[in-house]
Amino acid sequence: MLTSMYRHHSKISTTWSNFIRSASQSAQKPKTAIIMLNMGGPQTTDQVPDYLLRIMTDRDMIQLPVQSKLGPWIASRRSEEVKKKYMEIGGGSPIYKWTDLQGKLLTQSLDKMLPDTAPHKHYIAFRYVPPFTDETLTAVEKDGVERAIIFSQYPQYSCATTGSSLNAIADFYKNRSLPNIKFTLIERWATNQLLAKVFAERIQEKLQLFDGRIRDQVLIMFTAHSLPLKAVSRGDTYPHEVAASVSATMNQLSVPNPYRLVWQSKVGPLPWLQPYTDDAIKAYAKKGVKHMILVPIAFVNEHIETLHELDIEYCDEVAKEAGIKQIERAAAPNDHPTFIAAMADVVARHINNGETVSRQFLSRCPHCVSERCKSSKEFYKKLCNYTDYEPELAASTV
Amino acid sequence: MLTSMYRHHSKISTTWSNFIRSASQSAQKPKTAIIMLNMGGPQTTDQVPDYLLRIMTDRDMIQLPVQSKLGPWIASRRSEEVKKKYMEIGGGSPIYKWTDLQGKLLTQSLDKMLPDTAPHKHYIAFRYVPPFTDETLTAVEKDGVERAIIFSQYPQYSCATTGSSLNAIADFYKNRSLPNIKFTLIERWATNQLLAKVFAERIQEKLQLFDGRIRDQVLIMFTAHSLPLKAVSRGDTYPHEVAASVSATMNQLSVPNPYRLVWQSKVGPLPWLQPYTDDAIKAYAKKGVKHMILVPIAFVNEHIETLHELDIEYCDEVAKEAGIKQIERAAAPNDHPTFIAAMADVVARHINNGETVSRQFLSRCPHCVSERCKSSKEFYKKLCNYTDYEPELAASTV
Fold it and tell me: What reaction gets catalysed by this protein (chains A, B) (predicted)?
């Protein structure tokens, strides 16, 4: 299992100055920017301390008491352990490699599908490692594009993930005038049919590895990053959107296998959404289940939670100890042609339907009390040129 | 609002002996029984005490300490209050009326669609009021049908609802030999496209009541019965299936409105899945939302939770006090032609795909420790003639 993982990852030497230079040197002036948002992961172990520090001090992602003190302390305390994990998956995270490749293939597709908005060019804005939001937005402005599509790479929306990335864009424009670019936003795409299809194809690849006589009985266990119950109770839509992705995938897959959705990667002492993936593996093993597939359903690239937590900790260790006979882990969408088609389909539909920012995004969670969230929604109304039809009649979008 | 509710309900004089007699007198001998499972509701206030007693002592539905004592005590203490609520919605629950009408229309459709399995005849098996499982199964056997399709009327599966009804069937056959009937099971149908379509049509009916200038901004608030967090953590799939229904409905509806899924009808002091519907109405009102539609997404008939909790308590009282300008409540599917088509589609697909009992049903929740659940799954394997292909190779379905 360990050796197979190295195939997922190759060390990337691109530096950020190179990245921005190559952007400016592009042969044709881009007309449409596709800004791909994601958390990012350390490409080398040197980046681990800063990466952890940024996560631990991002209140959109994680809320700690006295965060400005406790965050850095936890980040520093966990650095060595996290470095070790990245060493075990080949020295760093492949998120940049996959995102950059996806962006290239996506914009090639879009140039063919949508001549009116071509040339399209992709830009990457990560939250916790470079390329950061600020340098990316600067590059987008410098390139003089006509329109920019902010495209979250998390298919399912959570305030902690896409919300955090969008707040970073709002922060950048806080003390700066908006450029003359038509900005629009794709903030969720959990049930795009081609996305469901690529997840189904990734599962089918693994189903084929099981003995034909029991293939129909393999338990398909969808797994996604868990969320604190506090966020669930506030009304974060992430668990519902993940469940909708699971349902859309099973409809595409069209097999009679049993399936479940469970939650991984809980941190800290507070209650999170359960059942947890590792506990579920153990519990099913006790019930006599011997064959299963783990399917990461809420992340489009391989990353530390697939390559280390699922592959090493759960498949190699937990499942083995629990007595599971065969466990496979479905690959992330990565550069699967169906996934590139899915991304292109999402962007093309967005361009064709003319919506600039969805009312679903502008609607806040029922129990949200965050002033940061409130002002961010106001910012996106301005950025994306959204007007309530009759603001005095309705205030349904706040 | 109150007067309009009386339209939903008319007093039903059918007695169960009449019901069973009319079943036996049917002109043509039925070939296929459609057994419609649901909780049922008291048709007259006289039935309230027994109805409550049965709910409060059903450990599949609700778990209380010293349930055999505490259950009856709570039932008796709540009888007067619950009777009063039924009086306020016209004297009783319309669940039987709707289920019986749906069954008649469904079997008429099936007779046309599926001549091979015709004549089809519907039977109703309620959990907490007559007609109970025992008398219904006795009637099915007496009619001498060739096959019987057990069809849960809860589109989304929960161990507390469909699970409880299915356990009642298992109880009936505990000390009795299985009849010579081909039994098969439809235990979930949350994302049937016609079901999503009828929900979408029910929402559209209400959207039309809003001023066209703000129609696109009306908040669509899907609401379903909540679940104790203990059941969520055990792995009950109900919240995911409800979320999948919401997503399928929004895809069918194809409007730009914001939408949310919230949870109603929590009872007792333990933590349940949140946000709660009434709290969400108040919280959105505070945020300035003035227009909304409540959509009961997990029940196919009007019942006390729509007619009293949503219409009287939330729409007439909570929303009014909170300052909501206009709130509408989408009707349940009831006898909408699209809903009858949805039911027929579910049954026809089930018959045509040849599956007798799904592996999804046979798979238990990861943290289930109920011996009753375990033996019930074993019972359905026998009842539906299910064979693991290679039981010695795989035990993936327990």
Answer: heme b + 2 H(+) = protoporphyrin IX + Fe(2+)
Mean pLDDT of B248-258: 97
Where do the domains of chain B lie? 2-188+356-383, 193-329
Omega within 30 of 0 (cis) for the link into B119: yes
Residue A202's Cα: distance from chain center in Å? 17
* Identity at B363, one-letter amino acid code: S
Residue A92 contacts residue A9 (beta carbons within 8 Å)? yes
CB contact under 8 A, B394 and A280: no
Question: What confidence score (pLDDT) does residue B387 get?
Answer: 83
Q: Does A88 touch chain B (CB under 8 A)?
A: no
Instruction: Assess A255–B contact: CB distance below 8 Å, yes or no.
Output: no
Query: B304-339 burial string, b = 16+ CB within 10 Å, else e?
Result: bbbbbbbbbbbbeebbeebebbbbbbbbbbbebebb
Is the C-alpha dihedral spanning A322, A324, A325, A330 positive or negative? Answer: negative
- Give the pLDDT confidence of B64-115 residue by residue, as tens digits: 999 999 999 999 999 999 999 999 999 999 999 999 999 999 999 999 999 9
**Would you say residue A376 has pLDDT above 90?**
yes
Just give the CATH number of A193-329: 3.40.50.1400
Mean pLDDT of chain A: 92
As a whole-number percent, the residues of chain B with pLDDT over 70 amount to 91
Taking residue A36's Cβ as centre, other Cβ atoms within 10 Å add up to 23
Is A92 a residue whose pLDDT tops 90?
Answer: yes
Q: Does B310 touch chain A (CB under 8 A)?
A: no
Give the pLDDT mean for A259-272.
94
Cα–Cα dist B166/B173, whole Å = 11
Nearest CA to A323 out of A285, A359, A293 is that of: A285
ipTM above 0.90 for this complex: yes
Q: How far apart are CA B188 and CA B185, in angstroms?
A: 9
CA atoms of A78 and A49, how far apart (whole Å): 8
B396 vs A214: CB contact, 8 Å cut-off?
Answer: yes
What chain A residue is nearest to B192 in terms of C-alpha separation?
Answer: A251
CATH of domain B2-188+356-383: 3.40.50.1400
Domain A2-188+356-383 and domain A193-329, same fold? Reply is yes
* Cα B367 → chain centroid: 24
Cα distance between residue B224 and residue B207, in whole Å: 20
A76 pLDDT higher than 70: yes
